[in-house]
Design a protein that fits this description.
7 helices, 146 residues, 0% strand, Ribonuclease iii, N-terminal Endonuclease Domain, Chain A, globular
């Protein structure tokens, strides 16, 4: 039987990436990768739900991948996060960013950045199952159906 490998494990293996000390990464770096990982999760689910035009797929995806919704998601999840996860979220939320979201308040944007930092942290520390369960729970808690 072939051993299962995560996408992170495959990337590290195939591109010769070494082990990292996640504590040295800035919260905005974690948010950068977390944004991509969250987007990949949502896009994957949207595509798996049905083959349709790229335009329709995009419109469905952006109903989830935006600062306003991500802020609602993290607010709903706060009581379910571990202390470590809350710390990562707060670091991301409090990071000084020089950009803002087009359709969100500064507060929503900061919360979304914290959420993305948490997703990035969980991904880079090999806790993809935890990240996926939090994303699924957040979707459920905010009453959205993918």
């Amino acid at each position: 039987m072939e051993e299962s490998i995560t996408i992170l494990g495959a990337i590290k293996r195939d591109f010769g990436c070494g082990e990292i000390d996640i504590r040295t990464y800035s919260p905005l770096t974690l948010a950068y990768i977390g944004d991509a990982v969250f987007d990949l999760v949502i896009r994957t689910v949207v595509v798996e739900r049905g083959n349709t035009s790229a335009n329709k797929l995009h419109h469905k995806t952006v109903t989830y991948v935006n600062a306003r919704v991500q802020a609602r998601m993290i607010e709903a999840l706060m009581d379910e996060l571990t202390e470590e996860e809350q710390t990562v979220y707060r670091r991301g939320r409090n990071a000084k960013s020089y950009t803002t979201a087009k359709n969100a308040t500064v507060i929503e944007y900061r919360k979304a950045t914290g959420f993305e930092a948490l997703c990035g942290y969980l991904y880079l520390t090999g806790k993809q199952e935890r990240m996926l369960s939090l994303v699924k729970r957040a979707v459920d808690l905010v009453g959205m159906t993918l």
